[in-house]
User: Fold this.
Amino acid sequence: MNLSNLSQLTVALIAGIVLAVGFALWMYLQKRRTQNLRAKFGPEYDKAVGEHRDRSHAESELDKRANRVAKFHIQPLTDDERSRYGEDWRREQSLFVDDPRAAVNHADGLVQDVMHQRGYPVGDFDQNAADLSVDHPLVVENYRVAHGIALRESQASGTTEDLRKAMISYHALFDDLLAQTSEKAAGVGK
Assistant:
């Protein structure tokens, strides 16, 4: 074997090793990304993968959500705000006995008010839910359930049991919005 062939073989071997290491590193980073997103988004991760039917596309979408929400100025509520909203919620729960439909409609508005106060933009429901999924992945599905029931109720096609379920679902998100401090405010995750 001459020196030229040996050099070519060495270069090919080194290139193969570099490619193998690069591929292994890429695979490791992909696995790590998946683990991080699954940990951050919880059940919302599985929902996104199911909707997109492609893990890579779903993960890209979840990254976009997180990047969008990172630009918001999410802040915890003050003690006074928390107390005031707590009283507002208790009033809505009392209203439920006499007028369940109105209580559900008011609960939706109250959740929107708290979201706005915390720093989330409000408007389009689907975008609201996507934004909430970043910081509230364990209860965002409650928001979807409650909103779906509220929409059906606007057409008078729900039952009192449906309305009760909507109130319970709104309450789970409402409590999380009131209690949870923002990661940015707490200095966590940065």
In short: The CA atoms of residues 4 and 10 lie 10 Å apart. The chain has two domains: 3-70, 79-186. The first helix runs from residue 3 to 41. Residues 79-186 form one domain.
